[in-house]
Specification:
Elements (H helix, E strand, L loop, with lengths): L4 H29 L6 H27 L2 H20 L8 H33 L15
Length: about 140
């Protein structure tokens, strides 16, 4: 079975977001090693959580690519959280335009891709179950 372009695009975006989080974690490590942390234990915790987030996004990307529904739903939750974070930053002064755009644009694109993928997979599942199994009213099941 061939993987669709939509699936590859959605998984690819999640994978790119995972790589971006790893780059952020690496930047945090360099900042910590340069002595730029006020609280090293807090900095280590932040680095650890950033890496956990990157690994989670990578796992969601693999799950989307393999067709697992938890990958699509988890990926959609991450995109919605990214959009919410970008929207919450709109009230910050001075306005962090780069931060807002770097979260909102991929988040919106990812949400659209995943919603389209969820819709298509749902339609395919309904088509696959038409005429099969005892739940179908036309199957002649004795419970009718």
């Amino acid at each position: 079975m061939r993987t669709s372009r939509l699936t590859i695009a959605a998984a690819g975006l999640l994978a790119l977001e995972a790589v971006a989080l790893l780059v952020i974690a690496l930047t945090e490590v360099f900042g910590l090693s340069a002595g730029g942390a006020y609280s090293p234990p807090s900095a280590l915790g932040l680095i650890g959580l950033t890496v956990v987030g990157a690994v989670g996004l990578g796992a969601l990307a693999v799950a989307v690519l393999r067709g697992h529904s938890f990958g699509r739903s988890g990926g959609l939750v991450v995109q919605i959280l990214a959009i919410a974070t970008a929207l919450s930053a709109l009230g910050v002064q001075p306005f962090p335009a780069g931060f807002v755009l770097s979260l909102a644009i991929p988040g919106a694109i990812g949400a659209v891709l995943l919603i389209l993928l969820i819709k298509r997979e749902g339609e395919a599942a309904r088509r696959g179950s038409d005429g099969e199994g005892p739940e179908d009213p036309g199957s002649g099941d004795a419970r009718d």
